[in-house]
Amino acid sequence: MSIGKRIIELRENKNWSQRELARRVNLNVSVMNRIESEDRPIKDHELDKLATVLDVTTDYLLGRDSNHGEEYDSLYEINQLLKKYNIDQSGFFDIEKWKSMGPEEIKQLESYFQFIVSEAEKKNKQQD
Q: Which InterPro entries does its entry note (predicted)?
């Protein structure tokens, strides 16, 4: 993913307009537009300021690191998966939709839960 697309994605995840991000990093909105559309190279001091304001590393913005910050952000990654597979979060947690699941779907769900618990237990044992 390009730097412009990363900036747009991060900005949209914060529900900021391009104007709002430009204000936060002290840039003219037209400059911010050109950075996001990659019509203008980003200067080092702008990169640093964007990384700070967007709560990521400069390496992430430059595509050198797939993590957004110093630590892995599992909630962010889960939200990205929900977006990628077009799963509406409110629908995902809507109990009424779960009530319509049949026996085979419940078995699949149980398998998934077992997998998650098993992986968590493995990780906990490795950390001990």
A: Cro/C1-type_HTH, Lambda_DNA-bd_dom_sf
Amino acid at 60: Y
Query: What letter does residue 41 receive in the DSSP assignment?
Result: P
C-alpha angle 21-22-24 in degrees, rounded to nearest 5: 65
Structure token digits, residue 101: 């699941």
- Roughly how many angstroms between the first and final C-alpha of the chain, as a whole number? 36
Domains of the chain, residue spans: 1-87, 94-127
Tens of pLDDT, residues 55-69:
888 888 988 876 655
In the numeric block, the tokens 């709560």 are attached to 55
- Sorting pLDDT into bands at 50, 70 and 90, what band is 114? confident
Q: CB of 76 within 8 A of CB of 66?
A: no
Q: Which CATH number describes the domain made up of 1-87?
A: 1.10.260.40
